[in-house]
Amino acid sequence: MGLALEKCCCLIPLRLGAFIIAVWFFTVYLIDAVTGFLGINAIIIYSSQTAKAWYYINLLFTILVCLCGLFGIIGSLFAQRGSAKLFSLAVWICCVLSFIKYVISLVLMIVYRQNMINTCVRSGLVGIGNSQLGLAPTTVSTGSYYTPVRYPDTMNSFATSPQDCEDSIKLMIILWGAIIFVIQLLQLYFASVVNAYASRLKSGARHHRLHDQQIKDFEESRFHMSTVY
User: Reduced to 3 states, what is the DSSP secondary structure of residue 57?
Assistant: First the structure.
């Protein structure tokens, strides 16, 4: 077995590594779900702007990943083979689903980028302090002399200029594409570590059973020898 499968990140024991990875899945996707519910997660909100069903599918997926992370925490904390095996399978499934989720979100934002810009011009960029839910495609009239109109405590209180919105949306899409690539590579490695830990638990269980059987066979053979003499 290679070094990458003997230790997590070449330093951390597999059991501790599996626990940290389980906490990662539980915490990160819990934050993803909560911010989506609160309307401050720009990726979830903008990607579902023209595909409302995607909003609920996205949130459902994040909740499922949180539960998988919880199974992993239990399995690694108490060294339960069943939970560790379930978590190992769930991690691989989550890697595939998260790739699909992130790619679909990115494609939707690229295809409907103008809708995002229009919404930003009207209501500002989605984020902490500017929560928005149920966004629909927006039409705004802009020109060279356009100035954002802001009314406190209304939908327009964070209105932004078209150029600022276009720059912000472009930067967000580029950063999100880079983050997707890094996260997928990281989670594939995590899945390999969890799989190695689950395999070690299973192998250890077989060794224990074999050891117990060897002791039993030895005791029985010693008993039979004593009766002969």
Answer: helix
Predicted TM-score (pTM) of this structure: 0.71
The contacts of residue 161 (CB under 8 Å, 6+ apart) are: 121, 146, 147, 148
- Mean pLDDT over 12-19 rounds to 84
CA–CA dist 204, 179 (Å, integer): 37
- The token pair at 68 is 């998988």
Q: Which residues contact 65 (CB under 8 A, 6 or more apart)?
A: 25, 29, 94, 97, 98
Q: Can you spell out the DSSP letters for 72-107?
A: HHHHHHTT-HHHHHHHHHHHHHHHHHHHHHHHHHHH
Q: What is the pLDDT of residues 168-179, one digit of tens each?
A: 999 999 999 999
Residue-range domain boundaries for the chain: 11-140+148-202
Cα angle value 29/164/48 (rounded, 5°): 35
